[in-house]
Amino acid sequence: MMDNGGFCNDNYHSLSSDDELVDISDVTVDFSEDVPPLIRDYSVGRSKADWRLHNSPKLMDLMDDTVPGIGTYEDFNTIDWVREKSKDRDRHREITNKSKQSTLALLFSVSDAFSGWLLMLLIGLMSGALAGGIDIAAHWMTDLKEGVCLNGFWFNHEDCCWTSNETTFQERDKCPQWKSWAELMVGVNEGASAYVVSYFMYVCWALLFAFLAVTLVRAFAPYACGSGIPEIKTILSGFIIRGYLGKWTLIIKTITLVLAVSSGLSLGKEGPLVHVACCCANILCHFFTKYRRNEAKRREVLSAASAVGVSVAFGAPIGGVLFSLEEVSYYFPLKTLWRSFFAALVAAFTLRSINPFGNSRLVLFYVEFHTPWHFLELIPFIFLGIFGGFWGAFFIRANIAWCRLRKNSCLGHYPVLEVLLVTLITALLSFPNEYTRMSGSQLISELFNDCGLLDSSKICDYSGSRTGSVNDTVSNGLADRPAGPGLYTAMLLLALALVFKMFITVATFGMKVPSGLFIPSMAVGAIAGRLLGVGMEQLAIYHHDWNVFRRWCSPGADCITPGLYAMVGAAACLGGVTRMTVSLVVIMFELTGGLEYIVPLMAAAMTSKWVADALGREGIYEAHIRLNGYPFLEAKEEFRHKTLATDVMRPRPSGPPLSVLSQSGMTVEEVERLILDTTYSGFPVVISHQSQRLVGFVLRRDLVISLENARRHQEGVVSVSAVLFTECDPPASLNAVPAVKLHSILDLSPFTVTDHTPMEIVVDIFRKLGLRQCLVTQNGRLLGIITKKDVLKHMAQMANRDPDSILFN
């Protein structure tokens, strides 16, 4: 063969960008393993190689100039953290050396150092602005299910009645400018006909919003569904999922998140806001060269963006930084900590400037408690922690079972029908109960509320609180007010709402719409906490002479705060589902502004984690990562088995030998045939096939691009041209064909372990260095290879799980 035609069917020059959309919801993709253990016959063409080595090729190092595509990664592959960090160190060293030579180079060095802070500023501004818009739109569309403002359809209920002069204190949520759908259609706001019309319109609007959400996701951005946090954790660990953080995903997720929240489904916007912030970060990274060309540096930015997402979701910038550190980040250096703090600060300031809730707060349910708690109250707080742990374990198992049923049955083939069916059930059962009819944020705000003189809701209906004088009410205090009929009704409705939300959330999380888990989990815990708090309050009223209450609950004192119990219950349930501890306590503290309640929150969060861990080690995000088969090495999972590297490496003792490249004994045709016959991501390079002495490691993608570039641009390259991974030139000859010199793409320092290295150490190395593969040697001789997938399969096998479940699905 004397032609210069390329061999590869794949077009490696039209690289996939992060804006491409790949629908993997219904497809099983086996991501490439790193090195193939295949039998290869290298005797074929050996005479050509011997002839070639004894002639003089004209050498051309293809890597003297940068070839487009070299150093990049294919979709559904893992990045090489060591190589990426080495590239960044080389780039920084070059910039530092040049900065000493000229003023222009010095200015470039300063701008390069400042670019990271500028990027954080832009991420904070963009994420804060989007979060403010989402909050405003979701509030308006939620109220649209109940009625419309005559002064302007774009006003929500609160804004519509804000300037009305005809609003009374007792009915401050009613004004002539706001008309319910019943008033517009049948002319009355009360009665059976009005109830039926309101019920019907509520269900219709919910179905419309849900249908639009799932249709947009299905048609334009399949990656916009779900929470996004499991995938972001996987991406931050080094996995490539192109399109998941692209511009179309950002646009569709922003729109459909508003629709999904407004539909009344049992979901929240907090988790998806982390995905939105990471999309913003990924898009903005393309405007900065050092982040666009380095996957490891980009993941540092994405870690900071995760903190931004929680900051705008809860108005908790410090909690967001700790959430990124504790829950999602894989590599979190000190520099990223500072930049995360700055980005979260900018995002919180931007959201505060927009003021989406009109209360000068960052969240809808911001409250301030000042009533002190007693030491004996730790007992009910710990009971709430136990409830949160049981709820978390139940939810994870039930939700994973439901999602597995969805994936393995015909239900997964009809995502639109599933969303509409769940929405219909949710709307039909939610409307009759005022506590399930309102949004999750409004419900939590209601439950966190500490009843005062100005509260007129049923949850604050105490005997004498509305009939007595103000002075009597103040003098009697909360502890002397027994529950009224409205409070008993509210407790019954809350109990029904608790059961409803516990089960409907299981079916909702994981559908093909944006769905967060923070708000539903907090709502379940807040309901349980409020019920327990009211029970403790009434117990103290009717049995104040008991020794347990006599010491700290004197008559006329506000000794029990039901809103505090709701707050502690919310933290317990959220901790049981996600297994967060430190970040959870800080988030709840920033939500409430109550320094004095840190100890109850810590007790509940720690108890819920202990109970949930006793019933199952995985949090909800880790469970979904394992369900989807993502190649993620969980740092919290310990490996305690006494196996060795030789037990895991490939090839197996009874299997075929390992396929390798020789340093200088192969032709272009042989290398191309090896690449075409395999789908793997890299090959070890040895001195010769007889000695098997290790020289280095070369990535398949770099090899393909380099050979294709040589075919196109290097004169005289043919199928019998030599492929050299050395810097030494062979002896000169007049009739020799040009050789392809690929020494520059060879990694001369691949990570190696001996065959007797304990797997416990190997697993730790893979976690801490983020390796793709590790070569196994004995006295410098190559024996085999261990890939990340091999480690995951071995860990699954040791845990009595199906090893084949480690498959990106």
Task: Please render the helix and strand layout as text.
Elements: H1 46-53, E1 59-61, H2 81-99, H3 103-144, E2 147-149, H4 157-162, E3 178-180, H5 181-186, H6 192-220, H7 229-236, H8 247-262, H9 270-285, H10 289-292, H11 295-314, H12 317-328, H13 334-354, H14 378-408, H15 415-430, H16 434-437, H17 440-448, H18 470-476, H19 485-508, H20 518-542, H21 547-550, H22 562-578, H23 582-592, H24 598-615, H25 620-628, H26 645-648, E4 661-662, E5 666-667, H27 668-676, E6 682-686, E7 694-699, H28 700-713, E8 722-724, E9 739-741, E10 752-754, H29 759-769, E11 773-778, E12 781-787, H30 788-798
Parallel strand pairs: 1-9, 4-6, 8-9, 10-11
Antiparallel strand pairs: 2-3, 5-8, 6-7, 11-12
Keywords: CBS domain, Chloride, Endosome, Ion transport, Membrane, Transmembrane, Transmembrane helix, Transport
Family: Belongs to the chloride channel (TC 2.A.49) family.
InterPro entries: CBS_dom (IPR000644), CBS_dom_sf (IPR046342), Cl-channel_core (IPR014743), ClC (IPR001807)
